[in-house]
Recover the amino acids of this structure.
């Protein structure tokens, strides 16, 4: 069953007709030519398809596009317009990748994660969930826990953590 | 995946009526479990009624001092909410220990309760499974059982319920608000999920067309002193081998109220009433903790391959109780 949807992708309004079975990930990649989000596992387990959906990090492989009609989507490609987002710069400076396949998802996830920490959200390793959470508390253990939804098969984790640590400052 | 129609819900009663009318229709929440099941061929709905469009995304304080979490509240928002963190820390901890940051931003409160087992055989349509295909047999019996049940299982099914959130809610005496074709009713979380018996295809007591609209948390004094601990094969982003939610109300050196539930051990969040009975009306001592764990787990029936879960559950419970007591001193 076809449905017509409108999305705002990386700042541009986009319209397309999709079968209701189409995920948001496939809509971006196959219908709109936005290839920054990657298809890794296609089951919500690897995080390589992560984008910001209305400002929050989500996996796009487990969302039907038809249910996201009208949404604002930011992919790694559109994080800073034509410029360079500080998180992207930090990944470059710290060698936060090897093959690069997981990187657009890692970077979108990291940007969303830092926003969550700035908003005072606790994590599973926060000692006291009832206490206040400050961005300065974002140590390596917090970064690892909060980024556990993004897998890197090359194992660039050490540099990913240091990139995020720097960009979060 | 078979073709399906999509409808955004306009109101709860209308959504219920639409789904109740169509046997192959189902509600769509965050989609993190349902969409995956549609990809795997486990779920084949012909109509999805999207209930994330309903105004069920609020957390509000109830007149009795309890808290109502709308069924559409995302797991991340519930975990970050100041009232939940302060009054029901075990619930915030349980939510934060589930899935990943990205999935918690999508997954809803109602959907979390209704997520289905991660039993590898249930998720693999090429293997027999009584939960997926009643009467076809259970592949886990004699198979890979590391993640399977040690309490309340049957000869037809040894799967466990995967939710962390539901375990904390079961311990905290939360109540589910349901709108169904026959009207509204409430169901304690401890009574929502079923033991498998000879009908493992039925996860819950809900009927087709029943929609969870909210979960109410009572204003229990013990809930402030509550913890959730999850033990798993990796440090993060994995389902529980065993988890424990516990709350103790200690007054004048004695335990006035105890609430304990286990996750990862049964087809439902396992409320540990026998352990609670041992804990109440006495001082919270190390030996009482071990007695409580023993009382609950003495007739556990581990499978070949998950015997370790019995001492793991015992040790985890004692450790969590110790922690709660040390924090109240």
């Amino acid at each position: 069953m076809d449905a017509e949807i409108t999305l705002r992708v990386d700042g541009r309004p986009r319209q397309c007709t999709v079968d209701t079975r189409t995920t948001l990930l496939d809509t971006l990649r196959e219908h709109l030519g936005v290839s920054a989000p990657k298809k890794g596992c296609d089951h919500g387990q690897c995080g390589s398809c992560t984008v910001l959906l209305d400002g929050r990090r989500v996996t796009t492989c487990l969302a039907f596009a038809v249910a996201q009609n009208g949404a604002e989507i930011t992919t790694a490609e559109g994080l800073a317009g034509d410029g360079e987002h500080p998180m992207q710069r930090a990944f470059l400076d710290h060698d936060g990748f090897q093959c690069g396949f997981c990187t657009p998802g890692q970077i979108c996830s990291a940007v969303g994660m830092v926003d969550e920490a700035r908003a005072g959200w606790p994590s599973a390793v926060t000692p006291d969930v009832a206490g206040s959470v400050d961005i300065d508390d974002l140590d390596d253990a917090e970064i690892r826990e909060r980024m556990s939804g993004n897998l890197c098969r090359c194992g660039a984790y050490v540099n990913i953590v240091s990139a995020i640590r720097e960009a979060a400052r | 995946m078979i073709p399906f129609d999509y409808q955004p819900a306009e109101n709860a009663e209308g959504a219920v009526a639409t789904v109740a009318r169509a046997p192959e229709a189902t509600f769509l929440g965050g989609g993190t479990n349902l969409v995956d099941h549609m990809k795997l061929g486990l779920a084949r709905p012909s109509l999805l009624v999207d209930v994330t469009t309903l105004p069920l995304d609020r957390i509000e304080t109830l007149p009795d001092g309890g808290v109502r979490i709308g069924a559409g509240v995302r797991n991340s928002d519930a975990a970050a909410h100041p009232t939940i963190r302060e009054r029901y820390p075990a619930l915030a901890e349980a939510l934060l220990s589930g899935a990943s940051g990205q999935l918690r931003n999508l997954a809803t409160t109602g959907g979390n309760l209704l997520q289905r087992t991660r039993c590898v055989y249930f998720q693999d349509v090429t293997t027999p499974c009584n939960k997926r295909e009643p009467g076809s047999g259970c592949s886990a019996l004699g198979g890979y059982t590391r993640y399977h049940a040690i309490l309340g299982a049957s000869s037809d099914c040894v799967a466990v319920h995967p939710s962390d959130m539901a375990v904390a809610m079961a311990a905290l005496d939360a109540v589910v608000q349901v709108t169904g074709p026959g009207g509204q009713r409430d169901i304690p979380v401890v009574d929502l999920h079923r033991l498998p018996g000879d009908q493992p295809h039925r996860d819950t007591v809900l009927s087709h067309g029943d929609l969870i609209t909210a979960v109410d948390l009572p204003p229990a004094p013990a809930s402030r002193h509550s913890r959730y601990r999850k033990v798993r094969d990796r440090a993060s982003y994995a389902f529980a081998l065993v988890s424990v939610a516990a709350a103790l109300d200690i007054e004048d050196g004695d335990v006035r109220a105890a609430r304990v539930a286990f996750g990862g051990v049964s087809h439902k969040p396992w409320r540990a009433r026998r352990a609670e009975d041992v804990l109440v009306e006495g001082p919270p001592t190390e030996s009482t903790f071990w007695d409580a764990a023993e009382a609950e787990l003495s007739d556990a029936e581990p499978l070949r391959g998950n015997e370790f879960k019995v001492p793991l559950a015992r040790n985890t419970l004692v450790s969590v109780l110790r922690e709660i007591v040390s924090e109240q001193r």
